[in-house]
Amino acid sequence: MRKLFVFNLVTLDGYFEGPNREIDWHNVDAEFNDYAIDMLNSVDTLIFGRVTYELMASYWPTPDAIKNDSIVAEKMNTLPKIVFSRTLAKAEWHNTRLVKANIEEEIKKLKKQSGKDMALLGSGSILSHFARQGLIDEYRIMVNPIVLGNGKPLFRGIKDRLNLKLTKARTFGNGNVLLYYQPAEGEK
Amino acid sequence: MNLGLIDEYHLIVNPVVVGGGKPLFKDIKKQHKLNLIKTKTFKSGKVVLHYGKGPES
Questions:
Q1: Which three-class secondary structure state does DSSP give residue A7?
Q2: Chain B contact present for A146, CB below 8 A
Q3: Nearest to A83 by CA among A60, A101, A70, A66
Q4: What is the pLDDT along chain A (188 residues), one digit of tens a residue?
């Protein structure tokens, strides 16, 4: 069965965005870009909640993104995408499917289909929801070398302690540390 | 951290999401960029991160 992994950049104090949704602290460079391309090559489905979807849909199709980040933009724009939202009326970003209900069943069904892995990008509240339901097979958390002091925590609404197993750690030249975790035995 | 008195931060990240609790960093007045000095991974899944203070701290 293929896996669903989540990829997120966080600050050292655990935030995935600032108090006003700032992500200007993202510490990215050519090495990060290479990682992003490898990651996008390993998946055939991108999954978002509404907030991250709207952010990305307003950036990747623009001429700026296509010019500055041509390879990543091409992949982001062409890969099949799913946005989960009860409120969104339609999803117009190329190759996006809007799913309004039964998101757990949808994820379970997708996992049983053959294909490459699937990535959940950003998306704070949907991440916690999926984590609680045991739907996430791998967490890829990239800790940036910055303390923001305030912002939105990556994990919100986690009621029960979630024990994880570290499977890999990779240090990037720019000071980012990418930590790979899977749910510990007995968590799923 | 606000006063710029700490030269290095040695932090150990445990492989658990607690869901609530007291944050390590509180009442931080501004952003602090840090320099990653080294990392070490333990078999238990703990990761040690050593940071030095950044240029503007």
A1: strand
A2: yes
A3: A101
A4: 899 999 999 999 999 999 998 999 999 999 999 999 999 999 999 999 998 899 999 999 999 999 998 999 999 999 999 999 999 999 999 999 999 999 999 999 999 999 999 999 976 788 988 998 899 999 999 999 999 999 999 988 888 899 999 999 999 999 999 999 999 987 65
Collect all residues of chain A within an 8 Å Cβ-Cβ radius of residue B36. 145, 171, 175-177
Query: Is the CB of A12 less than 8 angstroms away from the CB of B34?
Result: yes
Neighbouring residues of A58: CB distance < 8 A, sequence distance ≥ 6: none
Show the tokens assigned to A84: 């989960």
Residue of A154, A156, A166 to mutate when probing chain B, most B C-beta within 10 A: A166
Closest partner residue to B17 (CB to CB) among A146, A148, A161 is: A161
pTM above 0.90, yes or no: yes
Q: Which amino acid is at B43?
A: K
| B33 within 8 A of B55, measured Cβ to Cβ | yes
The structure tokens listed for B28 are 């931080």
A105 token code pair: 């069943």
The number of beta carbons lying within 10 Å of the beta carbon of residue B53 is 17
Q: Are A119 and A38 in contact (CB under 8 A)?
A: no
Domains in chain A: ranges and CATH: 4-183 (3.40.430.10)
